[in-house]
Amino acid sequence: MAVTEVRTTIHPAGTDPVQIAEKIKELFPDQVIDVANFRDQVSVIIKKDMSVAILKYLHDDPLLSFDHLQDLTAVDYLKKKDVRFEVVYGLYSMKYRHQIRIRAQVAEDNPSIGSAVSIWEGANWHERECYDMFGIRFNGHPDLRRILMPEDWEGYPLRKDYPLKGPELEKDWIGFREVIRRSQELKEFEWEG
Amino acid sequence: MIDTSAMGLVQVEEDVKILAPNVIITTFDKIINWGRLSSMWPTTFGLACCAIEMMAAGAAHNDLDRFGIIFRGSPRQADCVIVAGTVTKKMAPVVRRVYDQIPEPRYVIAMGSCACTGGVFKTYSTVQGCDSFLPVDVYVPGCPPRPETLLEGLMMLQEKIRNEKARWSPWR
After folding, report:
1. Looking at residue A137, which CATH number applies to its domain?
2. Which of B133, B163, B171 is the best residue to mutate to test the A interface, defined by the most A CB atoms within 10 Å of its own CB?
C-alpha cells in the first residue's frame, strides 16, 4: 500500500474532503472516474476493480483514519447511466471528523464487488441487505444470505425493473401462497353464524 | 302441567311456589355468550406501531381489564387475536399459525389500515389485508387507531358474540 507524505499538523476539523479526493486520484489514477461535489459533500466515483484496496487505504492511513463506515448501500441507475449500479460507501473518521463518499460502479452483466467486511466488521449486514435488495454479490463476504426477504424469495425488490406491487399471486413467494391455500382449505371449519 | 318437583320450588304461602333464592333461569345461548364476551382474552400480536396503541388501550387510562379483556401471552389460552400492524408476506405464516393455535371459539380483530387493507404499503412485501388468510370479525380503521377506536372495535366484537346462536351446540 502506498505511503502518504508525513504531515506534522492536522486541521482540527480534519482534512478537506476535496484534498482527500485529490489524494485518492493521485494514488489510484486509473481507478478514479470522477469526483462529484454537491454542497461540500464530496463523492469519489471509482471503478469496482480495486475498491477494497482504496477503502483499505482510507481506513488504514494514519492521517485519514476512516474508522467508521456510516452506510453502505447501492443505487440502481437503470436507463439513467451507462453503468447500472453504484455501491455507495459513506465514510467518516471519528478521530479527525472528516467524511467522504465513495461510489463504486458495478455493471449489470456481472453485479459483484469486493466485500468490505475485512475492513469494517459492520459492513456485514449492510452488504447482505444490498445483496438482498439489488442482487449485488460481495466477493469474500463470510455469510452472503438474504437478510430481509425470505431466503427462497425470487428477484431483487429494489431494482428499478422489479414490479412495485410485487409479483402476481401465482408467482408470489411460495410461503405466502401456501398460507393462502391452507386458509382456503380450512375455511369449511369456520363458524358462519 | 309441568312437573316442578325437580326445580326445587319453595312454598311461600298457600298455592304460591317460587324459585329458591339465588336461582336465575336463562337460555344456554345467553349465559354462554355472556361468559364469552365478559372474558375475552386476546393473544398479544403486535406487528408495528399499532401495537403501541394497543398497549395504550390496555394500560391504566383506558384499562381493558374492566371489560374482562386481559392480554394473554399464549394463543392456546386466548379467545381472540388482535392483528395490530403491518402483516408482511414473511410474517403471514406466523400470524396464521398463531391463529390456528387458538382454540374454538376464536375471533380476529384487524387493527389499523395495514391489517385491514395493507394501508399505504401497496408493495411487494406487504399482505394487502390480513383477511386474505384470516377470517376477520372486526375491522378497526385508523393509522394507527386511537385506543378509543380499538375499544369500540372490541365492544363491537362483544356485541357480535352476544348475538351468536348455538355456537356451543354439537349440531351447529
Report:
1. 3.30.460.80
2. B133
Q: How many domains does chain A have?
A: 1
Name the residue range of residue A126's domain: 17-158
Specify if A32 maps to a domain: yes
B93 CA: distance to closest CA in chain A (Å) = 6
CA distances from A94 to A64, A69, A120, A139, B5 (A): 10, 10, 14, 27, 91
Residue A175 in domain:
no
Inter-chain contacts counted by CB atoms under 8 A, chains A and B: 51
A157 contact B CB<8A: yes
Q: Which helix (H) or strand (E) holds A114?
A: strand A112-114
**Nearest of A153, A162, A120 to residue A138 by alpha carbon:** A120
| A143-192 residue pLDDT tens | 999 999 999 998 899 999 999 888 888 888 999 999 999 999 998 888 87
Q: What is the ipTM of this complex?
A: 0.78
| Dist CA A147 CA A87 (whole Å) | 18
Domain contains A103: yes
Q: Can you give the pLDDT at residue B1?
A: 57
Residue ranges in chain A modelled with pLDDT below 50? 8
Residues of chain A in contact with residue B79, where contact means CB-CB under 8 angstroms, are none
A75 part of a folded domain: yes
